[in-house]
Amino acid sequence: MSASVEAPVVASVVASVEATETAPRLRTRFTDALGIEHPVVQGGMMWVGRAELAAAVSEAGGLGIITALTQPTPHDLVREIERARTLTDKPIGVNLTILPSINPPPYGEYRRAIIDAGVTIVETAGSSPEPHMDDFGGAGVQVIHKCTSVRHALKAQAVGVTAVSIDGFECAGHPGEDDVPGLVLIPAAADALSIPFIASGGFADGRGLAAALALGADGVNMGSRFMCSVESPIAQVVKERIVEASELDTNLIFRSLRNTARVAKNSISDEVVRILADGGQFPDVQPLVAGARGRKVFEHGDLEAGIWTVGQVQGLIRDIPTAGEIVRRTVAEAQAVLSERLARFA
Predict the structure, then answer these.
(1) 149 lies in the same domain as 44
(2) How confident is the model over 191-239, as pLDDT tens digits?
(3) What letter does residue 276 receive in the DSSP assignment?
(4) Whose CA is closest to 313, among 180, 208, 165?
Protein backbone atom coordinates (compact mmCIF):
# COMPACT_ATOMS: atom_id res chain seq x y z
CA MET A 1 0.00 0.00 0.00
CA SER A 2 1.38 3.45 -0.84
CA ALA A 3 2.27 5.95 1.87
CA SER A 4 -0.38 8.34 0.59
CA VAL A 5 -3.09 5.76 1.36
CA GLU A 6 -1.60 4.33 4.53
CA ALA A 7 -0.88 7.58 6.35
CA PRO A 8 -4.48 8.73 6.98
CA VAL A 9 -5.36 5.29 8.37
CA VAL A 10 -2.51 5.33 10.88
CA ALA A 11 -3.10 8.98 11.75
CA SER A 12 -6.76 8.35 12.51
CA VAL A 13 -5.86 5.55 14.89
CA VAL A 14 -3.16 7.57 16.63
CA ALA A 15 -5.63 10.42 17.07
CA SER A 16 -7.86 8.11 19.11
CA VAL A 17 -5.23 7.82 21.86
CA GLU A 18 -6.03 9.99 24.86
CA ALA A 19 -3.96 10.48 27.98
CA THR A 20 -5.58 10.37 31.40
CA GLU A 21 -4.11 10.98 34.83
CA THR A 22 -3.96 7.28 35.63
CA ALA A 23 -3.35 5.49 32.34
CA PRO A 24 -3.34 6.00 28.60
CA ARG A 25 -6.77 5.60 27.10
CA LEU A 26 -7.70 4.30 23.67
CA ARG A 27 -11.07 5.78 22.83
CA THR A 28 -13.05 4.04 20.08
CA ARG A 29 -16.64 3.74 18.91
CA PHE A 30 -16.90 0.63 21.09
CA THR A 31 -15.80 2.35 24.30
CA ASP A 32 -18.14 5.26 23.59
CA ALA A 33 -21.10 2.95 22.93
CA LEU A 34 -20.57 0.81 26.02
CA GLY A 35 -19.40 3.50 28.42
CA ILE A 36 -16.08 1.84 29.27
CA GLU A 37 -12.56 3.26 29.39
CA HIS A 38 -10.53 0.82 27.32
CA PRO A 39 -11.40 -1.33 24.26
CA VAL A 40 -10.40 -4.55 26.00
CA VAL A 41 -13.02 -7.21 26.69
CA GLN A 42 -12.65 -10.39 28.72
CA GLY A 43 -14.33 -13.24 26.88
CA GLY A 44 -17.30 -14.97 28.49
CA MET A 45 -15.69 -18.37 29.02
CA MET A 46 -17.46 -21.42 30.48
CA TRP A 47 -16.25 -22.18 34.02
CA VAL A 48 -13.94 -19.13 33.85
CA GLY A 49 -16.14 -16.02 33.64
CA ARG A 50 -16.91 -15.58 37.33
CA ALA A 51 -17.32 -12.52 39.53
CA GLU A 52 -13.71 -12.04 40.64
CA LEU A 53 -12.27 -12.09 37.13
CA ALA A 54 -15.01 -10.01 35.52
CA ALA A 55 -14.86 -7.39 38.28
CA ALA A 56 -11.07 -7.13 38.07
CA VAL A 57 -11.18 -6.51 34.31
CA SER A 58 -13.94 -3.92 34.62
CA GLU A 59 -12.29 -2.18 37.56
CA ALA A 60 -9.20 -1.69 35.38
CA GLY A 61 -11.30 -0.01 32.71
CA GLY A 62 -12.01 -2.92 30.39
CA LEU A 63 -15.22 -4.92 30.15
CA GLY A 64 -15.41 -8.01 32.33
CA ILE A 65 -17.99 -10.65 31.48
CA ILE A 66 -19.71 -13.19 33.73
CA THR A 67 -20.72 -16.41 31.97
CA ALA A 68 -24.40 -17.05 32.62
CA LEU A 69 -24.45 -20.81 32.07
CA THR A 70 -21.49 -21.38 34.40
CA GLN A 71 -24.07 -20.70 37.11
CA PRO A 72 -26.36 -23.72 37.69
CA THR A 73 -29.57 -21.67 37.92
CA PRO A 74 -30.78 -18.17 37.00
CA HIS A 75 -30.97 -17.39 40.73
CA ASP A 76 -27.30 -18.31 41.11
CA LEU A 77 -26.50 -15.99 38.20
CA VAL A 78 -28.19 -13.08 39.98
CA ARG A 79 -26.14 -13.81 43.10
CA GLU A 80 -22.94 -13.90 41.03
CA ILE A 81 -23.78 -10.53 39.46
CA GLU A 82 -24.45 -9.09 42.91
CA ARG A 83 -21.12 -10.49 44.13
CA ALA A 84 -19.31 -8.79 41.25
CA ARG A 85 -20.92 -5.50 42.14
CA THR A 86 -19.40 -5.65 45.60
CA LEU A 87 -16.00 -5.68 43.86
CA THR A 88 -16.54 -2.88 41.32
CA ASP A 89 -19.08 -0.24 40.41
CA LYS A 90 -18.00 -0.15 36.77
CA PRO A 91 -19.96 -1.79 33.92
CA ILE A 92 -19.96 -5.60 33.84
CA GLY A 93 -21.43 -7.73 31.07
CA VAL A 94 -22.99 -11.19 31.04
CA ASN A 95 -22.43 -13.83 28.37
CA LEU A 96 -25.43 -15.87 27.25
CA THR A 97 -24.46 -18.60 24.80
CA ILE A 98 -27.40 -20.21 23.01
CA LEU A 99 -26.69 -23.62 21.53
CA PRO A 100 -29.03 -26.36 20.25
CA SER A 101 -29.19 -29.29 22.62
CA ILE A 102 -31.45 -32.18 23.59
CA ASN A 103 -32.12 -30.69 27.02
CA PRO A 104 -31.53 -26.94 26.67
CA PRO A 105 -31.18 -24.78 29.76
CA PRO A 106 -34.01 -22.32 30.48
CA TYR A 107 -32.65 -19.53 28.32
CA GLY A 108 -35.69 -17.36 28.87
CA GLU A 109 -35.25 -17.53 32.63
CA TYR A 110 -31.56 -16.66 32.37
CA ARG A 111 -32.46 -13.74 30.11
CA ARG A 112 -35.01 -12.51 32.61
CA ALA A 113 -32.49 -12.87 35.45
CA ILE A 114 -30.00 -10.74 33.52
CA ILE A 115 -32.59 -8.03 32.96
CA ASP A 116 -33.95 -8.10 36.51
CA ALA A 117 -30.40 -7.84 37.88
CA GLY A 118 -30.00 -4.54 36.06
CA VAL A 119 -27.25 -5.68 33.70
CA THR A 120 -26.94 -3.32 30.74
CA ILE A 121 -24.44 -5.21 28.55
CA VAL A 122 -24.88 -8.76 27.25
CA GLU A 123 -22.62 -10.82 25.03
CA THR A 124 -24.58 -13.39 23.04
CA ALA A 125 -22.99 -16.28 21.17
CA GLY A 126 -24.00 -19.44 19.35
CA SER A 127 -27.40 -19.09 17.70
CA SER A 128 -28.84 -15.81 16.40
CA PRO A 129 -29.62 -13.24 19.09
CA GLU A 130 -32.83 -12.23 17.32
CA PRO A 131 -35.25 -14.13 19.63
CA HIS A 132 -33.80 -12.20 22.59
CA MET A 133 -33.57 -8.73 21.10
CA ASP A 134 -37.08 -7.51 21.96
CA ASP A 135 -36.64 -8.31 25.65
CA PHE A 136 -33.10 -6.99 25.87
CA GLY A 137 -33.85 -3.92 23.79
CA GLY A 138 -36.96 -3.14 25.79
CA ALA A 139 -34.91 -3.22 28.97
CA GLY A 140 -32.17 -0.99 27.58
CA VAL A 141 -29.64 -3.83 27.41
CA GLN A 142 -26.92 -3.42 24.78
CA VAL A 143 -26.05 -6.64 22.97
CA ILE A 144 -22.65 -7.66 21.64
CA HIS A 145 -23.02 -10.72 19.41
CA LYS A 146 -20.07 -13.03 18.88
CA CYS A 147 -19.80 -14.59 15.42
CA THR A 148 -17.23 -16.19 13.14
CA SER A 149 -18.05 -14.76 9.73
CA VAL A 150 -18.94 -11.48 8.06
CA ARG A 151 -22.28 -12.86 6.86
CA HIS A 152 -23.31 -13.70 10.43
CA ALA A 153 -22.07 -10.31 11.61
CA LEU A 154 -24.26 -8.61 9.03
CA LYS A 155 -27.29 -10.60 10.22
CA ALA A 156 -26.57 -9.55 13.80
CA GLN A 157 -26.28 -5.93 12.71
CA ALA A 158 -29.62 -6.24 10.90
CA VAL A 159 -31.44 -7.40 14.04
CA GLY A 160 -30.16 -4.44 16.04
CA VAL A 161 -27.17 -5.47 18.13
CA THR A 162 -24.99 -2.65 19.45
CA ALA A 163 -21.73 -4.29 18.44
CA VAL A 164 -20.24 -7.49 17.08
CA SER A 165 -17.34 -9.58 18.38
CA ILE A 166 -15.88 -11.43 15.43
CA ASP A 167 -13.77 -14.57 15.95
CA GLY A 168 -10.87 -15.46 13.69
CA PHE A 169 -9.76 -19.03 13.04
CA GLU A 170 -7.05 -18.71 15.71
CA CYS A 171 -9.59 -18.56 18.52
CA ALA A 172 -10.30 -21.04 21.28
CA GLY A 173 -13.62 -22.84 21.20
CA HIS A 174 -15.68 -22.84 18.02
CA PRO A 175 -14.08 -20.92 15.10
CA GLY A 176 -16.78 -21.84 12.59
CA GLU A 177 -16.18 -23.77 9.40
CA ASP A 178 -14.76 -21.09 7.09
CA ASP A 179 -11.19 -21.19 8.48
CA VAL A 180 -10.63 -17.46 7.92
CA PRO A 181 -7.87 -15.98 10.13
CA GLY A 182 -8.13 -12.59 11.75
CA LEU A 183 -5.76 -10.83 9.35
CA VAL A 184 -8.39 -11.30 6.63
CA LEU A 185 -11.57 -11.45 8.70
CA ILE A 186 -11.05 -8.18 10.60
CA PRO A 187 -10.64 -5.85 7.59
CA ALA A 188 -13.40 -7.75 5.77
CA ALA A 189 -15.71 -7.01 8.70
CA ALA A 190 -14.56 -3.39 8.77
CA ASP A 191 -15.51 -3.03 5.11
CA ALA A 192 -18.95 -4.56 5.60
CA LEU A 193 -20.22 -3.33 8.98
CA SER A 194 -21.47 0.07 10.06
CA ILE A 195 -21.71 -0.73 13.80
CA PRO A 196 -18.71 -1.02 16.15
CA PHE A 197 -17.00 -4.38 16.30
CA ILE A 198 -14.21 -5.97 18.29
CA ALA A 199 -11.77 -8.61 17.13
CA SER A 200 -11.44 -11.93 18.92
CA GLY A 201 -9.07 -14.86 18.57
CA GLY A 202 -5.29 -14.47 18.69
CA PHE A 203 -5.01 -11.43 20.99
CA ALA A 204 -2.87 -11.34 24.11
CA ASP A 205 -1.06 -7.99 24.25
CA GLY A 206 -0.87 -4.42 23.03
CA ARG A 207 0.66 -5.37 19.71
CA GLY A 208 -2.48 -7.33 18.92
CA LEU A 209 -4.75 -4.51 20.07
CA ALA A 210 -2.84 -2.01 17.91
CA ALA A 211 -3.03 -4.36 14.94
CA ALA A 212 -6.78 -4.85 15.39
CA LEU A 213 -7.35 -1.11 15.52
CA ALA A 214 -5.20 -0.58 12.44
CA LEU A 215 -7.23 -3.22 10.57
CA GLY A 216 -10.48 -1.45 11.38
CA ALA A 217 -11.71 -3.04 14.62
CA ASP A 218 -12.80 -0.98 17.62
CA GLY A 219 -11.19 -3.17 20.27
CA VAL A 220 -10.32 -6.74 21.16
CA ASN A 221 -11.82 -9.63 23.07
CA MET A 222 -9.26 -11.76 24.94
CA GLY A 223 -10.09 -15.15 26.44
CA SER A 224 -6.99 -17.30 26.81
CA ARG A 225 -4.98 -14.29 28.01
CA PHE A 226 -7.38 -13.65 30.89
CA MET A 227 -7.45 -17.36 31.74
CA CYS A 228 -3.82 -16.78 32.75
CA SER A 229 -4.48 -14.12 35.35
CA VAL A 230 -4.36 -14.16 39.13
CA GLU A 231 -8.14 -13.73 39.40
CA SER A 232 -8.97 -16.48 36.90
CA PRO A 233 -10.75 -19.22 38.87
CA ILE A 234 -9.08 -22.16 37.08
CA ALA A 235 -6.43 -24.34 38.69
CA GLN A 236 -2.90 -22.92 38.82
CA VAL A 237 -1.49 -25.92 36.98
CA VAL A 238 -3.72 -25.13 33.99
CA LYS A 239 -2.43 -21.56 33.90
CA GLU A 240 1.14 -22.84 34.08
CA ARG A 241 0.46 -25.27 31.24
CA ILE A 242 -0.75 -22.40 29.04
CA VAL A 243 2.39 -20.42 29.81
CA GLU A 244 4.56 -23.43 28.91
CA ALA A 245 2.66 -24.30 25.72
CA SER A 246 3.34 -23.05 22.21
CA GLU A 247 0.98 -21.97 19.45
CA LEU A 248 1.23 -25.54 18.12
CA ASP A 249 -0.23 -27.16 21.23
CA THR A 250 -3.90 -27.18 20.27
CA ASN A 251 -6.11 -29.67 18.45
CA LEU A 252 -9.04 -29.06 16.13
CA ILE A 253 -11.75 -31.58 16.98
CA PHE A 254 -15.15 -32.29 15.40
CA ARG A 255 -13.88 -31.23 11.95
CA SER A 256 -15.65 -34.10 10.21
CA LEU A 257 -18.85 -33.28 12.09
CA ARG A 258 -18.82 -29.68 10.83
CA ASN A 259 -18.72 -28.41 14.42
CA THR A 260 -15.02 -27.59 14.70
CA ALA A 261 -13.63 -26.73 18.12
CA ARG A 262 -10.12 -25.68 19.09
CA VAL A 263 -8.98 -27.24 22.35
CA ALA A 264 -5.75 -27.89 24.21
CA LYS A 265 -3.65 -30.73 22.92
CA ASN A 266 -3.68 -33.62 25.40
CA SER A 267 -4.27 -37.35 25.38
CA ILE A 268 -8.05 -36.92 25.31
CA SER A 269 -8.21 -34.51 22.38
CA ASP A 270 -5.62 -36.62 20.52
CA GLU A 271 -7.90 -39.63 20.96
CA VAL A 272 -10.96 -37.68 19.77
CA VAL A 273 -9.09 -36.61 16.63
CA ARG A 274 -8.00 -40.22 15.98
CA ILE A 275 -11.47 -41.73 16.43
CA LEU A 276 -13.15 -39.21 14.13
CA ALA A 277 -10.38 -39.47 11.52
CA ASP A 278 -11.01 -43.24 11.46
CA GLY A 279 -14.66 -42.66 10.59
CA GLY A 280 -16.14 -42.42 14.08
CA GLN A 281 -19.23 -40.37 14.84
CA PHE A 282 -20.19 -38.21 17.79
CA PRO A 283 -21.55 -41.09 19.94
CA ASP A 284 -18.10 -42.69 19.70
CA VAL A 285 -16.43 -39.69 21.34
CA GLN A 286 -19.26 -38.35 23.50
CA PRO A 287 -17.93 -39.88 26.74
CA LEU A 288 -14.55 -38.25 26.10
CA VAL A 289 -15.86 -34.74 25.45
CA ALA A 290 -18.42 -34.49 28.24
CA GLY A 291 -18.48 -31.03 29.79
CA ALA A 292 -18.18 -32.45 33.29
CA ARG A 293 -14.76 -33.85 32.38
CA GLY A 294 -13.58 -30.49 31.09
CA ARG A 295 -14.78 -28.84 34.26
CA LYS A 296 -12.54 -31.21 36.26
CA VAL A 297 -9.55 -29.90 34.33
CA PHE A 298 -10.25 -26.34 35.37
CA GLU A 299 -11.35 -27.02 38.94
CA HIS A 300 -8.97 -29.83 39.94
CA GLY A 301 -6.01 -29.25 37.66
CA ASP A 302 -6.03 -32.71 36.05
CA LEU A 303 -4.81 -31.76 32.57
CA GLU A 304 -5.81 -35.15 31.14
CA ALA A 305 -9.29 -35.37 32.67
CA GLY A 306 -11.05 -34.12 29.53
CA ILE A 307 -10.97 -31.58 26.75
CA TRP A 308 -10.52 -27.91 27.55
CA THR A 309 -10.46 -24.86 25.33
CA VAL A 310 -7.50 -22.60 24.67
CA GLY A 311 -6.41 -20.60 21.64
CA GLN A 312 -3.27 -20.59 19.56
CA VAL A 313 -2.42 -17.31 21.25
CA GLN A 314 -1.14 -19.33 24.22
CA GLY A 315 2.18 -19.21 22.38
CA LEU A 316 2.34 -15.49 23.27
CA ILE A 317 1.35 -15.88 26.93
CA ARG A 318 4.39 -16.01 29.19
CA ASP A 319 3.24 -14.91 32.64
CA ILE A 320 0.32 -14.90 35.08
CA PRO A 321 -0.27 -11.28 36.15
CA THR A 322 -3.39 -9.76 37.65
CA ALA A 323 -6.26 -9.09 35.27
CA GLY A 324 -5.90 -5.38 35.92
CA GLU A 325 -2.26 -5.49 34.94
CA ILE A 326 -3.20 -7.26 31.69
CA VAL A 327 -5.64 -4.47 30.82
CA ARG A 328 -3.25 -1.64 31.71
CA ARG A 329 -0.25 -3.26 30.03
CA THR A 330 -2.21 -4.06 26.87
CA VAL A 331 -3.43 -0.47 26.54
CA ALA A 332 0.00 1.02 27.27
CA GLU A 333 1.69 -1.29 24.75
CA ALA A 334 -0.90 -0.47 22.11
CA GLN A 335 -0.45 3.24 22.71
CA ALA A 336 3.30 2.86 22.27
CA VAL A 337 2.89 0.92 19.03
CA LEU A 338 0.37 3.37 17.60
CA SER A 339 2.03 6.61 18.66
CA GLU A 340 5.67 5.63 18.24
CA ARG A 341 6.28 2.67 15.98
CA LEU A 342 3.48 3.10 13.43
CA ALA A 343 3.74 6.89 13.50
CA ARG A 344 7.23 6.61 12.01
CA PHE A 345 5.65 5.27 8.82
CA ALA A 346 2.88 7.86 8.62
Answers:
(1) yes
(2) 999 999 999 999 999 999 999 999 999 999 999 999 999 999 999 999 9
(3) H
(4) 208
